[in-house]
Amino acid sequence: MAKPNLCISRVDNNSSHGWIVRVKREKDHIIRFFSDSKSGGKRLSQQAAREFRDRVFYRLEREGKRPRAKKLVLRQKRNKTGVIGVSRVQKKKPDGTVADYYAVTWHPKPGLARGTTISIARYGEELAFKRACAIRNRQLMKRFGRGIFRKIRAMKDGMAQAAISQPNLTIATPVTGDGNIGI
Q: What are the residue boundaries of the structural domains of the chain, listed by start?
């Protein structure tokens, strides 16, 4: 296994010392605590937690409940720019003045986040937004491949068809200034 403590966390507080296993697949939530005192020490409780986790993974895989390897987020309620991963922020400089930026975030691989900022004062509002969207789109292509935008459009078309058959469902399709769909 690539990450030896995947789905396993250490608990050290006034009343409990041990390892907790949390696994979620579809609607199954499996949580179990392995106490240091009951297992015979810190290392033995960690080993018991790993063995339990591996058994749970094996059982869930046999049942066809696999984890999602790549998750695409198409929309968020809190997003104000219309492009997932691009947000407009203000930073306070050391001299006390406030500067506006577009912040770009992306995940090169699961569990790893990266980001950068584009100055609105330097590039202007429209160009800074376009540059931020271009960076985001480039990073999406690096992680998911060149066909990612076709896949996104297909997913959005499927969501739009669902909205037509269910009138209460609304779909927002953000498109960047350069014609790419922003996620």
A: 8-62, 86-165
CB 49 within 8 A of CB 19: yes
Query: Could you report the per-residue pLDDT of 118-138, keeping only the tens digit for each?
Result: 999 999 999 999 999 899 989
Other C-beta atoms closer than 10 Å to the C-beta of 32 total: 14
- Where b means 16+ CB within 10 Å and e means fewer, 137-170 reads bebbeeeeeeebbeebeeebeeeeeeeeeeeeee
Paired tokens of 108: 């090169």
Residues 179 and 79 sit within 8 Å (Cβ to Cβ): no
* Total-model pTM: 0.49
Tell me the C-alpha distance between 85 and 73, whole Å: 9
pLDDT confidence bin for 159, thresholds 50/70/90: low
Largest CA distance in the chain: 63
Under DSSP, the state recorded for 179 is: S
Model confidence at 174: pLDDT above 50: no
How many C-beta atoms surround the C-beta of residue 61 within 10 A?
A: 12
Q: Hunting for tokens 């429209």 — which residue is that?
A: 126
Q: List strands edge to edge, sheet with 112-119.
A: 86-92, 98-109, 112-119
Helix, strand, or coil here: 101?
A: strand
Beta strands in the chain (DSSP E): 8-12, 17-25, 28-35, 86-92, 98-109, 112-119
